[in-house]
Amino acid sequence: MKPLWSLLYCASLLLSDAQATYHLSAGDPQLIAAQSYAQTRNNGRPPIRTLNPAKTDSQCRSRPLDLVFIIDSSRSVRPGEFEKVKIFLADMVDTLDVGTDATRVAVVNYASTVKIEFLLKDHFNKPDLKKAITRIEPLAAGTMTGLAIKTAVNEAFTEQSGSRPRSRKISKVAIIVTDGRPQDQVEEVSAAARASGIEIYAVGVDRADMRSLQQMASIPLDDHVFYVETYGVIEKLTSKFRETLCGLDPCAMGHDCEHICVNTNASYYCKCRNGYILNADEKTCSLKQEVKVEVVQADPCKCEARLVFQKQTQAAIQQLTAKLADVSGRIERLENMVGRV
Fold this sequence. Notes:
Helix content: 40-55%
Oligomer: single chain
Radius of gyration: 32 Å
């Protein structure tokens, strides 16, 4: 029995730890430290990614997001390369369902300084977003990535800037694109961003520092760290992000609902057309049957007879219970006598 009690005791400790973790608030230092520790444990293994630009899914549709691009425009990014980044952003916009109640997009541009090019509340259609992207100019200085992440959290991912309330359960996503090594600290500020509920993807180009990318990105790193050799092929990431950020429609993929399939992103459930009800198998439907309710007048004689029967039954049960107790007592005494002998 001791191993079982030990196992139960350990399980209770793990449960209490998990409950304590989930009750930490977004800005709690313990949660930020936990995020940093989780990243540290995953930093030892650089992710290996194979990008297939031809792989797209016509049945993929974007789930609602509050999406902020954080783009590096430091002096190491040449003008022609920065144009490639802008093409990548425009291609990404094309893959998303943009709208007030769909995906909202913002862009934070950074070098030694940080500039918010436009906020989540500024543009709610693709043409306006793409025009705003064409107007972005490089800042051409240092690489203050940590400052850019902090600015995005404090100024772009706020309700005043167009981010939707936490109660709406809209995913908050940041995509960082950089080709260098940050000139400031990114680990703690990234952990704070993740602890506040922001999912971070880190895209490294050419000379990008892999360790910094891993410190910034959410875990699992295999799903959140990307690398391309040059800006010339960054567009290849569009299809990969499309797979990542979109939710497959299970109803479009095939279902076994007899009437109506309702998509819940992760799964689906079946509904019936008007006049039908869902059967116990939760897939097929049957016509509703009109139920006629017949009002029967109670017969006082029958009610009285039923009460008499109930009383007689209860008395019989009590007698049987008493006899059973008497027999049990006799058996116990016999066992005691045998034990003495």
